[in-house]
Specification:
Number of helices: 13
Order of helices and strands: EHEHEHEHHEHEEHEEEEHEEHHHEHEEH
Largest sheet: 8 strands, antiparallel
Structural class: alpha+beta
Distance between the termini: 57 Å
Helix content: 25-40%
Shape: globular
Radius of gyration: 21 Å
Length: about 425
């Protein structure tokens, strides 16, 4: 199959790696921002030199299709959830075969519709309601009488606006917080989703689908903060080919089928409860903010590489990804956290991380001299740290060094 051009929409975060990968094979990439506000907030992260051309969608599909008509596309990929609806619409309008079920587009984006659709397919899911009325939300919580509950926006990312509430008063506060703020993509929240709490080990499943079949890239075991805002503490890769993960693998595949995923990367969050796996959410995109070396070191492949291979050599991809999985060691993605507000990072902080035996890389949200915020989500974190080691004991020792420095003030001036 001959590959033409690739259109990439909102190609930031991990998706910034798409264009260099494709360009290495002589395939041109064109970039499109899904909205002027997305371009304003995230445009600085885009390397325009990676693209043949860069454009901004102005809420007129016909105009955008005309703008893009000079190129013939084999596929449209995206990096942020904000682009999903536009990508589905453009893929259908351009009659592409690399497409997901159009009628389920909303279910792949809207967190309430997502859970309801999976539930209708017979899958275990949380109980939930959605409303912009605080009385409806609190009445539901009180009638259930089972705490904690989860409050979240219906369209966001990076756990921004997600709260675990143990009392009705906390539900009130979380509702006000969500309704008075914007999503990760700077869109004002107009409604609130409340769900029952799923207790158990959380896993993140990264996979790539092709022609309705789903191929695992990696599974991560997730540890979250135990406070009101359940943001990431750290996550580490597991040997996902082991029999103990078969229930997770099977459930993830059924979720993807129920939500009409046929092609492209996905990033699933699933909790293994006492009653079996249950869905937290599906993100029809790459796993964000990851150093691609982590899963490459641990599993011999990465999410972006799998997407590119599936498009360039689909026959090879299907054969190679259907065999036994490989596992070479532990990779860990760590959220660098600050429990303090208004502190300056120590000038030697980033250099100290580089000396950790398991160090791979870091991503800075704060530069030396900038003031910290109390970490509540991905956006308020100091940054992220990538670690890899064949010896898990050393990996954990490095993690504990980082956590001690955060708590005892050694990371600050």
């Amino acid at each position: 199959m001959s590959i033409n051009n690739i259109l990439i929409v909102d190609g930031t975060s991990t998706a910034a790696n798409y264009a260099p990968f494709f360009r290495a094979y002589g395939i041109r990439c064109i970039h499109l921002f899904s909205d002027p506000s997305i371009a304003y907030h995230f445009g600085a992260a885009l390397n325009q030199q990676d693209y043949e051309a860069c454009h901004i969608h102005q809420d007129d599909i016909k105009e955008t299709i005309e703008l893009l008509s000079q190129w013939q596309f084999s596929a449209i990929l995206h990096g942020m959830d904000s682009a999903l609806e536009l990508v589905d619409t453009l893929s259908r309008a351009m009659n592409l075969t690399y497409i997901n079920e159009f009628d389920l587009s909303m279910a792949r984006r809207h967190k309430f519709e997502m859970i309801e659709t999976a539930k209708k397919a017979g899958l275990l899911t949380p109980d939930q309601i959605i409303s912009d009325d605080i009385k409806i939300i609190t009445d539901w919580a009180e009638k259930r009488g089972e705490y904690p509950v989860i409050i979240k926006p219906v369209e966001s990312a990076g756990v921004k606006g997600v709260f675990k509430c143990n009392t009705v008063n906390e539900v009130y506060r979380a509702f006000d917080e969500v309704m008075s703020s914007s999503s990760y993509y700077e869109v004002p929240n107009s409604t609130v989703l409340i769900q029952s709490y799923s207790s158990g080990q959380e896993y993140i499943i990264d996979s790539v689908s092709l022609k309705g079949r789903h191929y695992l890239t990696s599974i991560w075991a997730v540890t979250r903060d135990k406070g009101e805002s359940p943001f990431l503490d750290y996550m580490e890769t597991v040997d996902h080919g082991l029999p103990e993960y078969s229930a997770i693998r099977d459930y993830a595949s059924k979720v993807l089928d129920s939500l009409g995923v046929c092609n492209g990367p996905t990033h699933l969050e699933i909790i293994l409860t006492g009653n079996g796996p249950t869905l937290v959410e599906l993100n029809c995109r790459l796993h964000g903010s990851l150093d691609l070396r982590l899963t490459t070191y641990a599993c011999g492949r990465n999410h972006v590489q799998d997407v590119v291979t599936s498009l360039l050599t689909p026959d090879y991809f299907e054969v190679s990804r259907s065999g036994k999985s490989s596992f070479y060691g532990q990779a860990m993605h760590v959220l660098l956290r600050s429990p303090f507000f208004g502190r300056k990072l120590h000038k030697g902080f980033w250099k100290k991380l580089e000396r950790l035996p398991s160090f791979v890389s870091y991503k800075q949200n704060l530069s030396i001299g900038e003031l910290t915020k109390v970490t509540k989500d991905l956006k308020t974190a100091v940054g992220t740290l990538s670690l890899f080691n064949r010896d898990r004991k050393q990996l954990i020792e490095d993690l504990l060094i980082v956590r001690d420095d955060e708590k005892n003030g050694a990371m600050y001036e």
